[in-house]
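tool_call: predict_structure(chain=1)
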Amino acid sequence: MSAASPPGYWGTVRLLLASARRRQSGRSKRQQQLLSQRSDGKGTDWSGLGLLIGLIISVVIHGFAAGSVFVAVTAGQRAEAELHGHMVVSEEFLEQVQEADQTSFASPQVRSDSLAEAIGDEAARIARDQRSEDEKEIAAKLRARVAAPGSNGLVLAESAEPGLTPQGLSQPIPALLGSLLVLLWLVTLVCQGEGLELDIQRRRHPMWEWLFSHPVQPGAVFLAEMIAPLAANPTYWAGPLFVGALLGLTYDVLLGLIGAVVIGIPLTIAAGCLGKALEISAVLRLSPRTRGGVIGVISWFGFVGMVGPIVGAATIDWLVGHFAGTLAIAARVPAPLLALLLGFDGAGGRSFLRAIAFGWFLAAAMLGFAVWLSVRALRNGLSGAFAAETLSTGPARQTRFGREPLFRKEVLWFLRDRSAIVQTILIPLTVAGYNLFQLRGALSLAAQSWNLLAGAAITLGTYMLWVLGPKSLVSEGSALWIALTWPQGIESVLKAKAWLWSLIATLLVAVVLLLGCALFPQDWWKIALVGVGWYLFARSMAEKAVTLVTVVSESGEAQSIPSGRRWAAQLGMLTFAIGICTQVWSLAIVGIVYSWVTAAAMWENFRARLPYLYDPWSEKLPPPPTLMHAMIAVSAMLELSSVIAAFVAGIGGRENLPLAMAVGYSASAVLVSMVTARVLEDRGMNPAAAWLWSPPPAQAVHMFVAPWETLWNLMRHHGRAMAEGLVLGLLLGGFAWAYIHILAMFPPFAHDIAATHAQWAANPSLRFSYAIIAILCAPFAEEYLFRGLLYRALDRQWGGWKAVLAAAAFFAIYHPPIAWLPVGLLGALNCVMFKRTGRLAPAVVLHMAYNTVVVLTGS
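tool_result:
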C-alpha cells in the first residue's frame, strides 16, 4: 500500500487558511463560553451570528473612518478660513447681513443690534454643528464681524469648505488632517492580526511548525501564514470600503466601487501581511516577556484604532477649532498622502489612473517590507538565534525602592514584564477613556468648577482601581501562586500589589488635580484636601479589589468572581466622589470611613478563604462575629427603623412623627439584636459572648439574662467600672454641651443649632421621644452592634488604636456631622472600656449617661 502523496502548493495554502479560520471560530466560541460563565449562564449566545455581526460592525467602522476623513478635511478647511480672517456662516445669515449693509445710514452698532436675533440663531447653529459649548463666544465673534466689516468677513460653507477636491487639499491643515487619518487607518489594519488578542499569556503556535513534521512546501506555509489574518478576521473583509468611500466622495459611486476593488483590496492585503510580519518578528526575535508586551501593544493599538473613528466623528470639529493655531504650525511639514491616494497632483488636477498607480505602489512597498522583515526574522530565528545576538556581560541593574522586598518585587515585575504595561495601564485607560467619551457632556460641565473636576478625577481613579485589580492579577497567571511557598505568604504579596495599584491610580488622579489647581488657583487648598482624601481612600479601594483574586487554571483562565463578592467590594465605591462633586464634605468622609471598614471586612473573609483557594469545598468561614455581620446588622437596624417609623406615622398622622420615630427605632433595635444573636448562635457563637470580651464559660446563661446580668451582680463585681462609666458619661455629656455652644458662635453652624432648639421648644413631645430613643434603646442596641460585634471584629483584624479609631469613626458617621467629635469620643471611650473591663455593661452606662445629659440640655 503506497503512502498518500502530500498536498500540493495551493492545497497546503487552503488547508492552513481553513485551520486559521477554525482557530478564530474556536476563540470566539470560547469567549462566548467565558461570557456566559461570568453572567451565570444568563448571557445570550451570539456564536451563530458572530461572523455576520462582526462583518456588519466592520462595515460600519470603516464607513465611520471614511466619514471621519471627510469631516476632518472640512473642519481643517474651515479652520484655514478662520485663520485668514473669515467666518463660515449659512447662506440665510449672509443674506440678512448683506441686506443690513445696504442700509448706509445705519451705524455699525445699530446694524449689529438689528441682527441680534439672527446672530443668536446663527451662533446656536454653529455651536451645534461644531459640537461646541462656546455659543456666547461664537455670538460675540459674529457681532464683531457684523459691526466692523459687515459681510466682507463672512463666507459661505460651499466656498470655504470645498471638501475632497484638489483645491481643498492644497491647503496645509486639511492635507495634514486627512493624511494623518489615512495613515491611522493603515496602521489600524496592520495591527488587527487574526483577531483582538488581549490575552497575552496565550502561547502562539505559528504555522511554520508544519515544516518540522509535514512534507509540505515551505513557500506554501509561508504564504498561508502571511495571509492568515485575511482569512480569520472580518475586519479585513470590509477594509476596501474605506478607500472606495473616499474615491466615491471624490469622483462618483461607480469609480468608488472600482477603486474599492482595484486599490482597496491590494492595500488591505498588504496591511494584513505587514501585521503578520510584525508578529513573526516579535515571536522569533524577542524574549518571552518583551514578546507578550509588544504583541499586546500591537493588539491594543488595533482595538483603539477601530474605536477611534467613532470617537473622531464626534470630536474632530471641536479639536480642530480649539487647536487650529497648533495645527497650522504642524502643517508646515508637507502631508500629501491623502492627495496622492485620491489621484491629485500639485497643479490642481485629478486622475483616477494616478490614484490606482499610487495605491499599487503603496501596496507593493508594504508587501516588500513585510516579506523582507519576515524572511529576516525566519532566517535568524529558525537558525537558532533568539532575542539577542550576544549575551549581556555587564553588571546587573539593581532597583532601590525602599527597604520592603515585596515592594521591590512589584516594581521589578512592572519594569521587566512588558505585558504588565498592557494589562495594568493601557487596557484600564482605554476602558476608562471610552467611558469618559460616553460622558463627554458631563465632563464639559466638570471643567467649569473645581469640585466637579476633582470629582471626575476621583471617579477616574476609582474606576482604574476597579479594573486594574483583576487585570493585574490575571496578567501574572499561575506565577502569582508561587508566593504560597514564600516565608511572608501570598497575603503579603497581595498587600504589596494593592500598594502598587493605589500608587498608579494616584499618579493619574494627581495629574487631573494639578490641572484643577492651574485652572482654579483660588481653590488650590480645597483641591489639596481632596488629594489627601484620595490618598486615604485609594489604598482601601485597592485592598478591596485585591480580595477578588481567583485561582488561574493550567490553561491560563481565571475562575469567575462570585457576584456577591463583587457587590461587597463596591460598597462605598462612589460615595467619596459624590461627596466631592456635591461639596458635601461629610459625605466624602463617610465614603472614606465606609470604604476602609468594608476593606477590613472583605480581608477578614479573604484570610479565611485563602488557604482553600485550590480546595473551595473545604473552605471554612471566619469565626463569628465578623465585620460583615456587624455592618449588615447596623444597616438593617437603620433601614427597619425607617420603615416602621413611616408605617406608624402613616397610621397616626404626621403630627405623631416623633413618637413614630421612637417606636420605629425601639422596635428595630430589639428585632435586629434578637435576629443577629440567633444568626450568630447558629454559627457557633454563644449569645452572651457579645457582652463579654473574653469567651464566656460553657454554663453561661442565655443572652436575655446574661447581657444585663442582675443589678446586684453588676454592682458587686463591677461596681467600680460602672461608676467610671457613669462619671465619664456625665463629663463627656458636659463636653458635648460646651462643644455645641462654642459652635453656635460661628455663623455656619449657628442657624442649624438655633433651628433645632426652636423645634424642640415648639414640640415638647419631641424631647420625650428622643429621650426614649437615646436613653432607653440606643445604648443597648448600639453598644451590642458597634462594640460587641464591630469593634471586636476590628480588633481581631487590626488591633490597637487603629481598631479603636476605625470603630469610633464608623459609629460617628451614623450620627449628624455636627456631633461627630463628641460621638466619636464616646465610641472610642466605650471601645477602651469594653476591652479593659471585659464587660459591655459599663459602656452601656457611659452611653446612657452621655445621652441623658445631651437630651436634657438640648445639645
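agent: The beta strands are 87-89, 154-156. Proceeding to next step.
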